[in-house]
Structure prediction request, 87 residues.
Amino acid sequence: MHKKNYEYTRKKRIVLISPVRDEETFLPTIIESITQQTLTPVEWLIVDDGSTDKTPEILAEAAKKYPWIHVENKPDRGVRSVVPGVV
Prediction:
């Protein structure tokens, strides 16, 4: 990597915010993908919108392993809403 590109990458900081609900099938792959990126987030806030599967356990393990992953657990409202303003 050229020095100029390296310095530019070092200065970049990103924060991810991801709403999830019942994502146990895909979550391990997504977490692995994010952790393997060249630019690691300074924070990844994952909002669990009342999952009823193993999503909360998967998120808890990831948060233990990576200090920049933070999980916010919301109660199950009974329905999943995909309109703006959910998080």
